[in-house]
Design brief:
about 500 residues; Rossmann fold; three-stranded antiparallel beta sheet; seven-stranded mixed beta sheet; single chain; binds magnesium ion; binds guanosine-5'-triphosphate; binds zinc ion; 3 domains; alpha+beta; globular; about 20% helix
Length: about 500
Amino acid sequence: MPGHMITCPYCFKQFDDSKVHFRMETVDPDEEAFAPRTDEKYEEFWEPFGGTTELFSPSRDRAGDVSPWLRPVYDPMDPSKKEVFGGSARYLVGDDIVIGVKDRHDAVTERRVCPACHNPLPGRYGRYPVKFISLIGISGAGKTVYLSQLCKFMAARMGAYNIAVMPTSAYAYEYMTTNRVAANALLPQPTPPEIFQQPLCFDFHFRDSTGQPHSQTFVFYDIAGENLQFAEGRADIAESARRFGPFIRHSDAIIMLIDPMQFSGDDDHEDAVTALTVIDSMFDRERLRHLPLAVCISQADGKPQLPDGTIDKYAPTFCSDIIHVPALPEMRVNEGMGERFSVTDYNELRDRIDAFVRSMAYDVPLHTTLSMTYGCYNYFMIESIGVDLVEQEGEGGFSFMVPSATPRPKRIIEPILWILSKLPIGRGDMRPILEVRGFINEPGDWTCQFCGRPHIRATEDFCPNCRLNRFGQWRCPSCGVLNSGASEWCATKGCKTDRFGNRKKMFGVF
Ligand SMILES: Nc1nc2c(ncn2[C@@H]2O[C@H](COP(=O)(O)OP(=O)(O)OP(=O)(O)O)[C@@H](O)[C@H]2O)c(=O)[nH]1
Ligand SMILES: [Mg+2]
Ligand SMILES: [Zn+2]
Ligand SMILES: [Zn+2]
Ligand SMILES: [Zn+2]
């Protein structure tokens, strides 16, 4: 057996690919072993979420109308089930992992399920290293609209940066049709907080700087905003946050969306820190310091609301309000360079957002919270719709906002590209998935005021050039004592070392 470790995208149990269980392809109510039945493990997983959201998959069903989760599930390794498989298990292996098994009627099933929760493992899930990404943000932040647009545009946009993206299951398509973002169409409804939506899986294929091909699976979770709030009158997070906690806790990276109105400081809007507080309670300090967190100001194309709830048509967009550019420019792609990420282009926008967030620090403590708790975060601005919203009359005198033209999202893949530049390839390869040319500015970067060297990371205390810290002190490479920049030699008696590790030459002493 090939021996790929698989992490279940539903319950996060880990198991070897040869340990997967299978839903039977043969379904026959008249044959005991193959009769449809309620699956306890599966029901147990979905119970807290009010039932499954799995899609019916009729195309390859022989037994036409059987819901996939009612198919009998067996472990081909279970000695007591030998007779179901017609003897010892006849596995199918493809691309180095177990993908199917034959039953005693010689029917092949490729319906792999997790041995712990019996949820389906999509496509060849487990073949590549997997990275989990959660989308968080308060209700109305724009997560569903964003994710829907990612499902639609990610392949094309990432392709421009030489990363091929392919959905691994029908759920990406399903998600973007259910949560449609289109001209004159009603925008998605708030995501019901109790339900758990199917994880969205995509395979990314790319080459490293030496031309070697790599592949990774990315799994996205849309966590409804209501699940990220504190329980009324209690000191801990809401029950729902606990229910959705595992998805957040197992994330390799987080994308946090902030509705620009959250910076308004008015009482009608949760402030921009709310969702972070819940995250904070789910991870230990050390994880938080390394967890890539893309902080995205969403709806940059939006216009602020008037007190009566309507949109102020004449107001500038959030984008021009916040970063003082009339329209959000798309990230450039320098053709022919094999460009992965336009660093200068990104930095320019990022620095403006950074300045804005800092300027808000007095009213909205986002900057302070981030800089105190997170060691790996950066700022983004996205437009998931990218065209004006207009009011449309609906039935019964209701009106609602719809995109006035075909949506043209902007800068939606940047948070993902950045996350790729932070996460290692994995399976022993510690290089980042995406090697970026140039220096991506990060919050906390500093410039040495003594020698002028720019681009020093917050985690570095001393300037690599002149060895002085922000206060002009240097640490003795021999004895570790902190010295004043004014003194050339270490103050420790007999140490005779300078900040570069040179030893003092003694003249005339033998
Ligand atoms: N102008 C503009 N409006 C947006 C954009 N994204 C979201 N919106 C608006 O914000 C509303 C809420 O967006 P959703 O994506 O449903 O918000 P959510 O974060 O999924 O909210 P919950 O599901 O309640 O957690 C949409 O109906 C739009 O009116 C955007 O890019 N531009
Ligand atoms: Mg939603
Ligand atoms: Zn599972
Ligand atoms: Zn310096
Ligand atoms: Zn010393």
